[in-house]
Amino acid sequence: MAFAAFGGSAPAVAGAANRKGGKIVLALLLPGLIYLGLFFLTPLFSLIITSLETPDASGAIGVYQYGFEIGNYWSVMTDYLPQIFRSFFYALLATFFALLISYPLAYFIGVKMRARPMLQRLLVTLVIAPFFISFLLRTIAWKQILSEGGPIMQWVHSVGLLSPDQYFIGTPAAVIFGLTYNFIPFMTLPLYTTLERFDVRLIEAGSDLYASPAKVFRKITLPISMPGVISGTLLTFIPITGDYVNASRDFLGSSKTSMIGNMVEADFLQNLRYPTASALSVLLMAVILVIVSVYVKKSGTEDLL
Amino acid sequence: MAQATSSGADLDLRGIRKEFPGFTAIEELDLHIPAGQFFALLGPSGCGKTTTLRIVAGLDSPTVGTVSLGGKDITATKPHERAVNTVFQSYALFPHMTVLDNVAFGLRQRKIADPLKLAQDALNLVELGHLAQRRPQQLSGGQQQRVALARALVNRPSLLLLDEPLGALDLKLRRQMQIELKAIQIEVGLTFLHVTHDQEEAMDMADTVAVMNKGRIEQMGAPEALYDRPKTAFVSKFLGQSNLFVGAVVEENSNSVSIDVNGHKLTVPKARAEKHSGKIAIGVRPEKANFHEDGAPTASSDLNVIGPGEIIDIRFTGVSNQYLIEIPNLGQVTVFAQNIGKSPVTELGAKVWVSWKVDHAFGLADLPTSSEK
To answer: What ipTM does the predicted assembly reach?
Structure first.
C-alpha cells in the first residue's frame, strides 16, 4: 500500500521460477476471484438489468419484464433530485464534523499517548467500543436521549436555543448529528494508524527551521497524515451517502430528511418499484465513484493510498 | 522572525540545570563558545550532552539558567524564532517533500527571496545538486546526512548544532564526512556546536572539546591539551586510553611529586599534577610507555620504571600492537608499540619492564573508581 511508488516495483528478473510462482499466486487468488464474481459482479449485473426493466404488459403491480428503459434513470433523477442532493450535503457535513472531532482525538491517542502504551491501547478500545452494541440500538438510544421532555431538550428550550414549538428529532441537524456520531470510529481508526507512525522528530525539525506550530501542522503533520485523512473521509463519506437509518422517520429523521437510502428502501420494500430502486442504487454508485476518483486524484495521494 | 546572520555568534550558557521527572540530566553547566569556533561536546550516552544541545535549540527549556546568543538572552525564545539550526541525529528529513523542498523549507518560512536557487546552491555545496528532485527515502544514509546539513546550513544560522550526525554512517563515509564538515565550517565561518560520543571525531574536528560526564563538564580545552593533560580519571579514560596508578605521596620537591605504589616509586612533574599531597593518581598514555625485555633500565628523576611483569595479551591493530602487561602488586599496564620492525616485537609470557619519561606522566585531581582503574 503505502509508498508503493518507492518499492522498486516488480523487478524484471522474470524466469522459470517466477512463472511457477505466478501459478501459485493464481491458485491463491482463485477463491477470492470466485467470491467476487458470485457475490459482487453477479448482483451488480442483475441490479443494472433490473434498473432497465419496464412494467409487465399485464400491468400487475410489482411485476416487470426485460427492456432497455434508460428513461428509468431520467425519472429517478427528476423525481429524487432533492433526496440525491440532500444525501451528498448531509454526507459532506457529517464527514467534515467527524474529521473535526476525530483528528485531535486520533492525534492525542496516536502521538501524545505513546509514552503510555497501556492507556493508548485502552483508548483505542474505547474508540471501537460502540461497535459492541448494534448501531440501531445506539441510534434509538440517541432518539430517546434527545426526545422532547428529556433533560437535554428541556435545557435546550429553557435557555432558548430552540423555541417551545420546535423539535430537534426529525430535523436535518438531528440526522447530521446521528450520522457524525455513528461514523466517527471509521474516521478515527485510519487517522490513528497514520498518526501513530508519525515521526514527532519532524515537528522539532520544522520548528528548528523557523516554522511556527501552526505552520508545522499545515506543512508537515497534516500532509504526512494525509493518507489517514483520505481513507478516513472515504470510509465515512461513502457509507453515509447510502445510509438510510439515521435519516429515517423511525430514528432521527422525518419525511423532510429523506436520503437516497430511504428512497431505495421505500421503492424496493414498500412500493415494489424495483427498476426505480435499482436505477437509484446504480446512480448513487456511479456518482460516488466519480466523486471519489476526483477526490483521490486532487489530493495527489494516489501513491500513498 | 529570526534574523539570520552571515557570520557566527557567541553562545553563552550560564548556570544551566535541567531536571526531568525522576532524574537530573544536567547538574550545572557554564559554557562559552566564541563566534566561529568548532566546539565539540563529548561524552558517553546519558551524560547530558544532547539535552544541552536541545536547550540551545529551544526544544527543551532549562530548569534554571540562561542561554545567550550573540549577547542576547534567548532562554525564553521559541525554537522557530532562534537563529539556530540543527542537524539531527535521525536527520529528520521531511518524507513528503523533495530534497530541494526540504532544503528550501527554512528559507520559505522566513520568506527569503529565491529560496529554490539558494537551496540548489546549498545542495551543490554538499555535492548533491543532481539529486534535488529525489525524495529523502531514495537516498543513502550518507546522502541524507548531507541533505540535513544543507538544510541547516542554507539558513546561515548564527550557530549550527550537530547532534551526532555521523553516528549512523560507516567508518569510511564517516571519515569523509568529517573532512567535508570541517571544510564547510571553515568555508562558511559559522559557529558549530557538535555533540558526539566519538572521541576521535571530537579531537579531529573541534577547536575546543568539552568532556561531559554525569551532567557536568569535567574538562574543557584544545584537543591536544586535553589529551596531554587530562585532569580527571574519567577524561583520561574517555579521551584515549590511560594507565593509572594510585599511591600516597612520599616525596615532594620544587619540581616533582613522587608516589609509592606497592614499592614502586613513580614521579610526575609538579606542574603536571593537580594534587601534591595525600593519596593521588598518576597516569601515562600507553603509547608513551615502552617495555624492555633485556633487563630493567635505570630509574632516575627523568624516568619511571616498573616491573618485571609478564605479557599476558597482544592485540594487533594494524599500525601498532597493544601489549597488556601484568605486573605483580601493581596491576595491568597497556603499552602501544608501532609496528615498525617485526610484529609482534615479543611474545606472550615474555618477562618485561615498563618505563616512561617523567615528563609524560600526569597527576589527576581525583581517584579512579573501581571501573575506571
So the answer is: 0.82
